[in-house]
Amino acid sequence: MNLSFGGAPSRAEAIRVVRAALDAGVTLIDSADVYAPHADAVGHNEALLAEATRGRDVTLATKGGVIRRGEDEWLHDGRPAHLEVACEASLRRLGREAIDLYYLHAVDDAVPIEESVGALLRLRERGWIREIGVSNVDRAQLERAASVAPIVAVQNEASPYRPGWERDGVLAWCEAHGVAFVAHSPMGGWRAGRTAHLSGLSAVADEVGASPFQVILAWLLGSSDRVVPIAGASRPESVLSSVAAASLRLTETQRRRVAGAVAESAP
Fold first, then answer.
1. 45 and which of 35, 51, 122, 200 could share a cystine (Cβ 3.0–4.6 Å)?
2. Domain 1-151 CATH superfamily
3. Residue 162: per-residue pLDDT
4. pLDDT tens across 228-260, in order?
């Protein structure tokens, strides 16, 4: 959910959005320690989610392994010492006994992924986290991570701006091992406005009486039973629209047309 970046809602409205999602049956909410309005507000979204989900039965996922040094400077830090500090801070902000799902946010080229994931395994053994995930990985990195600890979720981009995401081996690995493929940025993140105006996508949306965003979500959901798209929202109405996409079914012809529109949009 867009609770902290450009066009983000007020704190009160953000809490309304989260609670609308829970009331609509959403059972997983994704965050990260660095999701915040600016670099000096690390932990903003986690603290907000703690308030919005208090007393509710929901799985909270967050991430560590990225640091912000400025508004546009995001650095990877997969050192075990950093991950321990980051996880402890996230646990405190979320106000939970343990974090349901904790991801390595990104691979640090200066630190073997085995060391980073090994640190998460030790945090799980300590009782700080329940399950381990990895994010923004390729197949080889995923296999190396899985050799160290059980991986229950992989969060990679699946959008019109990442062509071939379903053929790069990561989704196939997830399907073979019963692991969730959590698709972030389904509309391309900050490029969502451009995606919504793809002619081929809009045509399919008109046919099924849905929005282009709903069609993209339905297309992703129909690509594999392991795919779980992350649907961003900044208004309660957007939440309900995203939830409705789960019941939208596309014909094979429509799926091919969506795929064609997606391919044409690739840079």
1. 35
2. NADP-dependent oxidoreductase domain (3.20.20.100)
3. 82
4. 999 888 889 989 999 999 999 999 999 989 888
Write out the two tokens for 182: 């959590």
**Token pair 């867009």: residue:** 2
User: How much is the pLDDT for 267?
Assistant: 57
Backbone angles phi, psi at 179, to 5 degrees: -105, 140
- Segments in the chain below pLDDT 50: 2, 5-6
Residue recorded with tokens 């999602």: 21
Give the per-residue pLDDT at 6.
Answer: 47
Residue 102 annotated in active site? no
d(CA 63, CA 43): 11
pLDDT at 106: 98
